Amino acid sequence: MQKGLITLFLIVFGLTISIGQNTTKTLDSEIKNLYKSLEIPGFSVAIVNSDSVVFQKSYGYENLDQHLRFSAKKRFNIASISKTFIGIGIMSLIEQGKFTLDTPINDLLPFKVYNPNNSTKITIRHLATHTSSILDNDIGQKSWYLDGALKLSKKEVDRDTYKTFCSWADNTRTSLGDFLKSSLTKEGNHYSKKRFAKTAPGDTYVYSNIGAALAAYIIELKTGMSYDVFIEKLVAKEFGFPPNVWKHTSEQLPTSYFQNKIEIPTYRPILYPTGGMMLSCEELSRYLSSMIKGFKGESKILKPESFQKMMNLSEGNGVFWELKGNKVGHNGGNYGVICLMSFDKETGIGKILMTNISSYASDNILKQVVKIWGAI
Fold it and tell me: Concatenated DSSP letters for 71-116?
């Protein structure tokens, strides 16, 4: 999750869900009028409860040149919302007795991960709540790669963005386990003491993609299958989704844009469990509805107590779910994607927004996303 998306999380999770104040017809009209003032190419929104999708619409275009309309049926990258599936996997394995939240990760890994600044053992709980003391730092430069040669011009984007994509052009696909070992053990090519905070595990919240990927890798080790296969089986069985939900395996990917409407080169994730899932707004809506049902104790995916713990482990944190007041959910963002998802624990009403543009040169797009979120 990028810095701007963290700020966005704090804003949108504080907004009140208000479907009861508008009919769907009025809401549709309001969003259509709002879209006319936006720089956003296209987006889908949804409002759900535990039983159904209450409202779902798409606006604008997936591809501007082809005038291809944005569709709630078309899969799009959900970015860091992918991490919520790691949470389901972790809680499922806890139910099976494979480990507990307080199991040290070095009891489960084939290589050892230590914070060189502190002797406190890193646990599953620490990974799940982003308090492991494992830092991303330059991981964002190393953990993505391009699908083909870089054709982006320096004049088309800002300097930092161009530098990032040049780094990605130099990277190659690497297995999840090999990349983690290379980044987190002293013998690894990507290792650095700066990968670890000076504070002890459990002391400080620092959002960590590589820490989340380490949790997904532990799921691999305890299930005996690759994480992507594990999730494919989960979504097929529990949610009825078709296969090919991963950005690193999908042959066709939707068009996404920089803030200046330049198309973004196709980039793929090495740490794919943390931000590489592809779901349509329809599929994500059914997923959120199922999660609300689970929070109410009405799901067979996990036991009721597991859902409660997953979505309310400690103040501000669940097991890869984010909390603020009565709101539970997760946001996601990267180049060319902003995706928001949350529900209200008291009302049982949830909201989703996904769009194919990102805000890096300025906060204009983020402000417009907040307007849409406020409307629904």
Answer: -TTS-EE-GGGGHHHHHHHHHHHHHTTS--TTSBGGGT-SS----T
Dig out the tokens for 318 from the structure. 């669940």
State the DSSP string of 126-184: HHHTT-S-B--TTHHHHSEEESS-----TTTS-HHHHHHHHHHHH-----HHHHHHHHH
User: Cβ contacts of residue 76 below 8 Å, gap of 6+?
Assistant: 254, 278, 279, 280, 281, 337, 339, 354, 356
Nearest to 272 by CA among 321, 212, 313, 208: 212
Q: With 0-12 CB in 10 A as exposed, 13-18 as middle and 19+ as buried, what is 324?
A: middle
Cut 0.90: pTM above it: yes
Q: Are 2 and 333 in contact (CB under 8 A)?
A: yes
Q: Categorize the per-residue pLDDT at 316 as very low, low, confident or very high, splitting at 50, 70 and 90.
A: confident
Q: Which of 23-32, 100-109, 199-208 has the lowest average pLDDT?
A: 23-32
Q: What is the CATH number of domain 3-375?
A: 3.40.710.10
| Mean pLDDT to the nearest integer, 102-112 | 98
Token duo for residue 111 = 């290589």
> Token pair for residue 295?
């929070």
Smallest CA-to-CA distance from 261 within 192, 359, 167, 330 is with: 359
Q: Is 297 exposed, middle or buried (0-12, 13-18, 19+ CB in 10 A)?
A: exposed
Whole-number Å distance between alpha carbons of 271 and 213 = 6
**Spans of all domains in the chain:** 3-375
Q: What average pLDDT does the chain have?
A: 93
* pLDDT attached to residue 363: 87
Contacts of 191 (CB under 8 A, 6+ apart): 182, 183, 184, 185
User: Which run of H or E residues covers position 337?
Assistant: strand 337-344
For 17, which DSSP code?
A: P
Provide Rg for the chain, Cα atoms. Answer: 20
Could you read off the pLDDT of 223-279 as tens digits, one per residue? 999 999 999 999 999 999 999 999 999 888 899 999 999 999 999 999 999 999 999
Inter-residue contact 112 to 185 (CB < 8 Å): yes
Give pLDDT, residue 8: 57
pLDDT band at 11 (very low <50, low <70, confident <90, very high): low
Q: Is the pLDDT of residue 290 over 70?
A: yes
Element holding 69 (H helix, E strand): strand 68-69
